[in-house]
Amino acid sequence: MGSFDPSGILRHGRLLAIALAWAALLGGCATRSDLPPAPATAATPEYNYIIGPLDTLNVVVWRNPDLSTTVTVRPDGKITVPLAEDLVAIGKDSTTLARDIEKALSKYVRDPVVTVMVTGFIGPFSEQIRVIGEAAKPQVLPYRQKMTLLDVMIAVGGITEFADGNRAIILRTSEGNKQYSVRLNDLLKDGDVSANVEVKPGDVLVIPQSWF
Question: Domains (ranges, CATH) in the chain?
Fold first, then answer.
């Protein structure tokens, strides 16, 4: 499933800088009619949650309670469990990681059976939802399947009084940084459910400031 790549932090730092620049540029635009509206649906049925740094994992080794443990994925993307050190967790789903732990434990335990459950969700940088600009609480959010714009707005506490919500954009990193317009004012102030679109892993929501 791939190993931890420290350069990813730098790449996403550059992406955030680009998005912030867009936030400044959007402040001077009169409309976002030059961008296509965000598609109403974005989730894919085959989506599997991928483990990221600082996720909390419950590792259960059947019939071996002394080997079962709860661990937090380190910033370097690795974990240490009893009898197995420095196992790469980032970029893998829980099933793949469980098989890796079984392989490591098989040196000491006969036919180990391991289950990994994610109990604290942060997610990898590439799948986090970033909200910048005139949100009440700009922040990074873990992605959830079928997560919508309204879910994001609830998490960040809505938009500020200075926001121009109908000129907000989604920067979709999974589609080569393609930009889509979204209508936050219509959604939050007018209750227009047609403005409630799904987000995708890695989306950056940029909310510009109103000049009026």
Answer: 7-47+126-207 (3.10.560.10), 56-120 (3.30.1950.10)
